[in-house]
Amino acid sequence: MKTYERLLSYVKILTPSNEDSTTSPSSHCQFDLARILVDELKNLGISDVSLDEHCYVYAHIPASEGLDSCKTLGFIAHMDTVSDFCDHPVTPVITENYDGGELPLGTSGRILSPEMFPHLSSLKGRTLITSDGTTILGADDKAGIAEIITALERILTEKIPHGPLAIAFTPDEEIGMGPAHFDVGKFGADYAYTLDGDTEGEIQYENFNACSAKVIFQGVNVHPGSSKNTMVNASLVAMEFNSMLPAADTPRNTEDYEGFFHLCSVKGDVSRAELHYIVRDHDAASFEARQNTLTHIAKILNEKWGEGTVALTLTQQYRNMKEIIDTCPWLISFAEKACRACSVTPLILPIRGGTDGARLSFMGLPCPNLGTGGHAYHGPYEHITAEGMDAAVEVTLQIVKLFAERRD
C-alpha cells in the first residue's frame, strides 16, 4: 500500500481519547486500531509483536547480519485523536493536483483558504487529503503510524541494512497520558523518534514546560436586596482573577518561544465558579514565574475577599525535552542529514505544545519529534499531502541507515 492509502484506512477508525475518563486507555475504541496494527505488523513478517492491556503496541525487528552491535533505534506514533470534531465517522477527501487556492470542504460550508493558511500555495500540484469539513482528518497522528509501517515494509522487502529496531504505537497522547504506562524496558530502544510533527522536515526537540491550573472560587450568596457588604459573587471574583493576568500573554498573541496563560473553560454562578487554564513556557525560569504569578493572585484575592475564597491547584504535565536532547545532539544532526539526503529542507522549530517524546526523554529514552507532512491539526481544516507523507518515509529510512553506520 502507498503511505497515504494506509492513512485513509486508519482515519476511518474513530479513536478519540477522553480526558474525563479514569481508565487506561481512556477510550476502548483505541483497541480497534491497535488490533489492526498488530495484524499489519505480523503480516510484514515481524514475529515479535504484542498488544498489552493498556493498548500499547510494541514490535521489535532484529538487526541485519553484522549490525547487532548498533544501538537500538525506536520509532513511536500515537493512535488516539482529539475528541473535538470527532462525533461521527471521518470522510476523507482526496484532491489531486491541488491548485493552491481556496478549497471547499465538502458541503460543510468551510473553506480551506490561503488567507487562513498561507502555506497552502506551497502545496500546489500535490495530492491534498482533507476531511469533508465536518470532522477532523485524524492525520495527527495516524499519518505517523502510516509512515512508520510503510518504512518498515520498505526495510524488510528491500533488505535495507539496519540495526535493532523497536516500534511502539501508543494511546492517549492527546490528553497527555501517552507515556503513562509506556514500558521503556520492554520497548528496549536506546534512542527513539516520535513521528508526530507537522510539515515534512520538521525536527523538534524543544517543547513547552507545561502545567494545568484549576482555580475554584467559593462565594457567599445572599438575597441581592440585602447583600451590601455580605455577598461575594464567585463569578465576579473569577473575572477579577483573570483580569489580573498579563492581558497579552495568551495563545493568540504569542509565537515561537513566547509562553502564555490559556483560559480553557469557565463555569459558575454566585456561589461557586471555576476557571481552568493551561500554562506554557519554554524557559524554565519563566515557567516558574508564571506559576508564581497565579499563586500570588490567589493570595491577593484571598486577602481581599476572605481566606478560602480562592483555591488554586497546579498540576505538572511535562518538561522541555531540550534538557535531555542536549546530551545527545547527534540525534538532531542525524535528522538534519537525513532530510538533506532526501532533498527536504530541515526545519528546526520549537514545539508550541507537547509530545510523548518530552516525557519519554525524562523516562530515560531521548526522543525528538519529526514532521509527518500534516497541517492545521485538531480541527476541521486539518490537511496533509501524499507527497509530504512520502518525504517523511524517506527521512525515516535515512535515519535508519545513519544509525546502521554509527559504531560508537
Provide an overview of this structure:
The protein is α+β, with helices and mostly antiparallel strands and 408 residues long. α1 (3-11) crosses α3 and α3 crosses α10. It has helices at residues 3-11, 30-43, 139-157, 184-187, 234-243, 284-305, 322-325, 330-341, 356-362, 386-405; strands spanning 48-51, 57-61, 73-78, 93-95, 103-104, 111-112, 128-130, 165-170, 191-197, 202-204, 209-218, 260-268, 272-281, 310-318, 347-348, 369-371, 374-375, 383-385. The protein has an eight-stranded mixed sheet with strand order 1-2-8-3-9-16-10-15, with helices on one face. Strands 4-7-18-17 form a four-stranded antiparallel sheet. The chain has a four-stranded antiparallel sheet with strand order 12-13-11-14. The chain has ten helices and 18 strands. The longest helix has 22 residues, at 284-305. β5 and β6 form a beta hairpin. The protein is globular.
Number of strands: 18
How does the helix and strand content classify structurally?
A: alpha+beta
- Could you report the average pLDDT, rounded to the nearest whole number? 96
Radius of gyration: 23 Å
* Largest sheet entry: 8 strands, mixed
* Strand composition percent: 15-25%
- Quaternary: single chain
Overall helicity: 25-40%
What distance separates the N and C termini? 36 Å
